Amino acid sequence: MRNLVKWGAAAVVAAGLCPVAGVAGAAEPIKIGSILSVTGPASFLGEPEKKTLEMYVERINKSGGVLGRKVELIVYDDGGAGDKATTFTKRLIESDKVDILIGGSTTAATMAAVPLAERNETPFISLAGAVNIIEPVKKWVFKTPHTDRMAAEKVFADMKKRGITKIGLISEDAGFGKSGHDQSLAVVKEFGIEIVADEVYSPKDPDVTAQLTKIKNAAGIQAVFNFGFGQGPAIVTKNFKQLGMAVPLYESHGVASKDYIKLAGDASEGVRLPAAGIVVPEQLAATDPQKPVVTAFKKDYEAAFKSDVSTFAGHAYDGLQIALAAINRAGSTDKAKVRDEIEKTSGYVGTGGLVSMSATDHMGLSPSAFHMVEIRKGGWVLSD
Questions:
Q1: Which of 94, 27, 108, 111 has the alpha carbon at shortest distance from 66?
Q2: What is the largest CA-CA distance in the chain?
Q3: Does the model's pTM come out above 0.85?
Q4: For residue 28, what is the DSSP state?
Q5: What are phi and psi of 261, to 5 degrees?
Q6: pLDDT over threshold 60, residue 22
Q7: Contact of 257 with 201, CB cutoff 8 Å
């Protein structure tokens, strides 16, 4: 899919960017390239990301563009496949000659694109979760979502607060799930928690009863933590209930979408997970600086698409705003200058939290950006 969003523009940029006078008609457009998993097993990530980028690019162009130039969005659908992500990233950089990359719905797609972005010195803002996207720091690569390590730490802190000391871990065996598994092992001892059963499954597995049965039979299990995204966690949740497992089930932020609740059905009742404030905007404190941002975004998204707002849509919104603000501050699309300005992002209040990046932090979110939520009656309940 190659999706060009083109509109005439004349002077001002919306969404918190500074007005810049000029005439866009004769100027070259600012080209944003995006690889997204619009179809395939990760479509619940990529589809809302694509719709969000399109909606706000259209809105920005109608308001005047950026630096007196329209914004052109070029989207390719990788279908969740890393090899396609490589091909499309190469095309975006070499043929479409984009100024910046925003995308990579999945960790696998992002990591396929990273070497190309680095080699071609093109700023790249990822929308995927794994910590290895930005650690170690890569000069040209940034990301908007919370990391898998942060998710593990938030879950383990909640477990510790509830007196849970022995758990079962189950995770997908690739990409985000594999990284989340490894990060969980790396930090779990800091919270005085022991993993007494450790099982994996494939994202394509239609049933994980065997793995969950091993966890159920492990001595002293007080909770289960699953790391994955897409249909896999929904299958884990259904099988968990079918086995009559009476301990709490925790998921990662990879399921912070109403699509997960719909797929898992009644089995999702009581599931706990870390999530951004975007899933519970009306429940945030009036003093929370995120509240007006996520409330407005939720209203805009749901009015435009007649569907529930998505955490993943918020990742795309934040990526776009950070990118265009950096271009505006740089006063050009010079890639080195834009990269430097992205790295200087400070005090940006987005759907994911308060973002302040640096030369040693290319995400800029603190653990406080996460909230613990619990699924009740098909919705999210703030449970910090």
A1: 27
A2: 71
A3: yes
A4: P
A5: -60, -40
A6: no
A7: no
